[in-house]
């Protein structure tokens, strides 16, 4: 019991000595031992690394999960060491709505079929998004969090110990300056040697820890590469999914006009007979700008045939049609009695019908 009382008294004395030294330094009444420049640079680098790592980590979490309530829920489950319940993401929910709507409208109709195909693509994108979140959490967020909650906490602890050892050292220097008798001076010198040794030892421990920040940067660089690769995979998947969807929807405009809007097609054909204004298509997906559909009157004015650039890939539905590749140039001409939505196309020794909405007539 006596030992504990003495220890508590010693600790209280040390705390009071540090508090007095700290206060006098702030007031400019006591000298302060400065750390060497190398150690100061290491401390600054560690603090800078900690601050930016926290900001990058938090913003990455916002990017991967924009819903703040969902982030809080996942944080709580993580602290409780429990798995968060799986929830449908926004892309998957939109996809399911589209599929349900398409089935309700009728998958045999052009709009219903398009909705089903779009819904299936949105669900695939949702799955890819889920995989991006999972991969990024393991390969990027977890290492950053481990640094903040592990390595940097150790550094902060040793940094605080170094600060205390410095205060002890400077307090000992102050007492030595104030010593008047030979006995008190000898005691103060002995105390100064001890506190100097402890300070030097703690400075070396802290320096060794701080020099590991360079290794931390190298590790975080590898994690950053993994994160970029995960994003690249995700966006490549999304692009391919949408490209496939665009190709699937490419034949929908003509099918929609001929199968589900015959009355409108008839009136448009009559209008084009009495007027030279070309008919434009607004049903095709646009990649850069609005494309004006070529008119038959333009073709007839050019001695029967013209060159045309293909706007989109097209797969022939039967042997009477000609398959097309985007950006290729073919020869086209009209045939009396042919549907106004089609032209005859030629490429080398190949010939067949091509949809006019897929073409841009060249001068």
- Average pLDDT taken over every residue: 82
In what order do the strands lie side by side in the largest sheet?
4-3-2-1-5
Number of helices: 10
- Intertermini distance: 104 Å
Q: Quick one: biggest sheet?
A: 5 strands, antiparallel
Low-confidence stretches: 253-294
Notes on the protein architecture:
There is one protein chain. The protein is α+β, with helices and mostly antiparallel strands and 363 residues long. Helix content is 67%, strand content 7%. It is built from ten helices and five strands. It has helices at 2-26, 37-64, 68-79, 90-105, 110-178, 182-210, 213-249, 252-260, 262-274, 296-300; strands at 305-310, 329-333, 342-347, 350-355, 359-361. Strands 4-3-2-1-5 form a five-stranded antiparallel β-sheet, with no helix packed on it. β2 and β3 form a beta hairpin. α2 packs across α6, α5 runs antiparallel to α6 and α5 packs antiparallel against α7 (213-249). Residues 253-294 have low confidence and may be disordered.
Brief synopsis:
This protein is α+β, with helices and mostly antiparallel strands and 363 residues long. Helix content is 67%, strand content 7%.
Feature tags:
10 helices; 5 strands; single chain; 5-stranded antiparallel sheet; alpha+beta; 363 residues
Secondary structure layout:
Elements: H1 2-26, H2 37-64, H3 68-79, H4 90-105, H5 110-178, H6 182-210, H7 213-249, H8 252-260, H9 262-274, H10 296-300, E1 305-310, E2 329-333, E3 342-347, E4 350-355, E5 359-361
